[in-house]
# Entry
Amino acid sequence: MTCYLCEKETVYTTYFCEHCRRIKHLLNLYGKRVNYVLEAVLIRNEQQQKYKIDNELKKEKTNIRKVIFEEKEEKKPMGDSTYIEPNTLNKDYMDELKKKLSQ
Ligand SMILES: [Zn+2]
# Structure
């Protein structure tokens, strides 16, 4: 026969499979708190679904931007992200950096 809870696993001498027996044990220990935790953690309401969808779209946009940015970066004269365009740093800042390097 199959497990009374998951209705998937085959069982011979008991009503519940190994995993469902664990769930039954937790139900005995925590009672309705188990239902609350399952609802709160596993079930997403519409607002939470929206957050998830927005988050996934944001990730996708970031990945697309990354691809575009990296393509542009390859066209840079030196092809290196550490490359600094000449004369873009002021002299004082360059002197400060040189001083730090010589320490
Ligand atoms: Zn089961």
